[in-house]
Amino acid sequence: QVQLVESGGAVVQAGESLRLTCAPSGSVIHIQLMETMGWYRQAPGKQRELVATVTYDGKTNYAAAVEGRFTVSRRNADNTLWLQMNGLKPEDTAVYSCNAKVLENYYWGQGTQVVVSP
Predict the structure, then answer these.
(1) What is the pLDDT of residue 33?
(2) What confidence tier does 20 reach under pLDDT thresholds 50, 70, 90?
(3) Count of CB atoms situated within 10 Å of the CB of 101
(4) What are the pLDDT digits (tens) for 21-80?
(5) pLDDT given for residue 89 in this prediction
(6) CA–CA separation, 102 vs 9, rounded Å?
(7) Do the bridges between strand 94-102 and strand 34-42 make them parallel or antiparallel, or are there none, so unpaired?
C-alpha cells in the first residue's frame, strides 16, 4: 500500500553535514493519512533506536544524542520527510530508516547508510 524510500546517505568526515530524504509512494489515500513520521537508526551490533519524530501538525521529538544537531521536517502536501544532520560524529554511523504511522499500521523504508569517519 505504501512504500518509503530513503536517500541521502553517504560517507562523510566528522563535523560535516548530510540531509536525508524519505519519499513515500503508493496509495495516495494512505499517504495523505500519515500521522507521526520519524527517523530511526541502527548501528552495527546495536538495536534500532529513535532519532527524531514529527507529527502532522509539526511537533517534533529528538533523541538526546542528536538534539541540537539534527532537524526533522516534513512537507504535508506529500508527506516527504527530511532529516538535516549537522555536526556529524563517528557515533552517528548507522543505517537510517524512516517510519510512518497510517491508521493502525506502521511502514518502514529499507534504510540509507550513513558513515562518519573520524
Answers:
(1) 83
(2) very high
(3) 17
(4) 999 988 888 888 888 999 999 999 999 999 999 999 999 999 999 999 999 999 998 999
(5) 98
(6) 25
(7) antiparallel
Phi, psi dihedrals of residue 113, rounded to the nearest 5°? -85, 130
DSSP element (H, E) containing 31: helix 28-32
DSSP per position, 32-85: HTEEEEEEEEE-TTS--EEEEEE-TT--EEE-TTTTTTEEEEEETTTTEEEEEE
Whether the CB-CB separation of 12 and 116 falls below 8 Å is answered with: yes
Residue 74 in grid coordinates? 516534513
- DSSP at 29: H
- And the C-alpha cell for 86? 549537522
**Grid coordinates representing 30?**
494512505
Q: Give whole-number Cα distances, 94 to 15, 30, 49, in Å.
A: 16, 28, 10
> Phi-psi category of 53—alpha, beta or left, where left has phi over 0 and alpha has psi -120 to 50?
beta
Q: Please, which pLDDT band fits residue 98 given cuts at 50, 70 and 90?
A: very high
